[in-house]
Amino acid sequence: MKNFNKNQKEQVEVMALFGYEMTPCQPLTFRRRGENETEVTELLRTQIRFVGGQALHIFDVLIGREKVRLEFDSGNLSWYLT
Question: Whole-number mean pLDDT of the chain?
Answer without folding.
Answer: 90
